[in-house]
Specification:
The chain is an alpha/beta fold. It contains 14 helices and 11 strands. The strands form 2 sheets. An 8-stranded parallel beta barrel has the order 1-2-3-4-7-8-9-11, surrounded by 8 helices. Strands 5-6 form a two-stranded antiparallel ribbon.
């Protein structure tokens, strides 16, 4: 098992009437609501929280990319990753990920990820994502090209990392006379590649085929996670090998306090701010973004999406968040990890309006009273070399 702190870097200073006045926290939410002076405070606070994760024993930190959104005002996770590469010494730095279709050319991703990997001494985990549905509206990009651009970009980046340059690339979407990135990655043949997914069959099959790692996107009922991880393991078997536990990861909001009731008393209003305001407008699937079969499957799951949840009881029953005392959280998480069969937990310890003192307390209690127990019960993490050897041996 490996444990990561995942940060969305949400912008939480929204008007009281936001839910009634605005249809979404994405794409068209007016940037007049943004306060850069407050943003200065937030960015530096959020970076401090990620740096603190190393101090208290987490295995890694995670950042991600979103655009024109209060949900996550981190349009360039590579900037954050480069800061973390310089300010930390041990933790993995997982950028989950770069939205490949939005980079023109995608060799920018190969270069910037290699910079982070070199600065950090080989601690980058390279996340490659298709990009969220709302962002195809933000970039005015034809979503029917989402999958083909993504696959071409992914192939080109891996080739740029593993094949000596210069070489030529003439694909469907990009034509490049000289592909010759400087620098190249510190890790050989390239950094570990993580690909998040919300249940798309195309994504699961791609990740399994290439022996990359599949990260389950949060905010769905536990039954949907279980189906997705089982589908991934079957896809790995279809490709002739057994999936390693650390090829999978579960992203989940976590809040730990001294008792169950105290945890809910401190956390509930912040969780519902996130649900009712920041998640608003996230679930958008532009025409052509995924296959009809995948959209239908995800559409069924949306009936149990966190944005539709209204009570604490529903959250606890569906496993949408791990909330409670250290004893409660560690037992719940042990059961979920074993049921899902995952080897990485990506914890959202800060969610919207949760203040700095409660975020730090949450992270500390988890690191001191939950994490050691789970390591003992579920096993120490494999090294990158051990994981590579295990996949190669299959």
């Amino acid at each position: 098992m490996r444990f990561f702190t995942f940060h969305l870097m949400p912008f939480n200073k929204l008007p009281e009437d936001f839910e009634e006045k605005y249809e979404t926290a994405w794409t068209t939410v007016p940037n007049s609501l943004y306060d850069p002076v407050y943003g200065h405070e937030l960015y530096n606070r959020f970076l401090d929280e990620l740096i603190y994760a190393e101090e208290i024993g987490f295995d890694g930190v995670c950042v991600n990319e979103h655009h024109q959104s209060a949900y996550g005002h981190m349009p360039s996770p590579n900037l954050m990753g480069s800061i973390l590469a310089r300010q930390t010494k041990r933790v993995k730095i997982a950028v989950i990920g770069n939205a490949l279709p939005f980079y023109d050319p995608p060799t920018r991703v190969a270069e910037e990820f290699a910079m982070i990997d070199v600065i950090s001494g080989g601690r980058l985990i390279a996340g490659m994502v298709v990009g969220g549905g709302p962002e195809y509206y933000s970039f005015s990009m034809n979503p029917t090209y989402a999958r083909s651009k993504y696959q071409e970009a992914l192939d080109l980046i891996v080739r740029a990392w593993t094949e000596p340059g210069p070489f030529e690339h003439y694909g469907e979407h990009w034509k490049l006379r000289h592909v010759n990135p400087w620098p190249t990655p510190f890790q050989k043949p390239h950094p570990p590649i993580w690909i998040p997914g919300a249940g798309s069959k195309e994504t699961i099959e791609l990740v399994a085929e290439r022996r990359y790692s599949y990260m389950g996107i949060p905010y769905f009922h536990k039954s949907f996670f279980k189906k997705n991880f089982d589908m991934f393991r079957k896809a790995c078997q279809k490709n002739g090998y057994k999936a390693h536990e650390e090829q999978t990861g579960w992203l989940v909001p976590i809040y730990v306090a001294e008792t169950d009731e105290q945890a809910w008393a401190e956390y509930e209003k912040h969780l519902f701010f996130f649900i009712k305001k920041l998640l608003k407008g996230l679930v958008v699937f532009p025409p052509g973004y995924s296959s009809p079969k995948s959209i239908a499957r995800i559409g069924i799951a949306l009936k149990q999406f966190l944005g539709n949840v209204t009570t604490r009881e529903e959250i606890e029953e569906g496993g949408y968040a791990m909330v409670g005392s250290p004893e409660t959280v560690r037992e719940k998480m042990k059961d979920y990890v074993q049921d899902f069969g995952v080897g990485n937990v990506l914890g959202l310890f800060q969610i919207g309006t949760l203040p700095a003192d409660l975020t730090k307390k949450n992270m500390t209690l988890f690191a001191e009273q939950v994490l050691p127990y789970l390591r003992k019960e579920l096993g120490e993490p494999a090294t990158d070399e051990e994981l590579s050897q295990a996949l190669a041996a299959n």
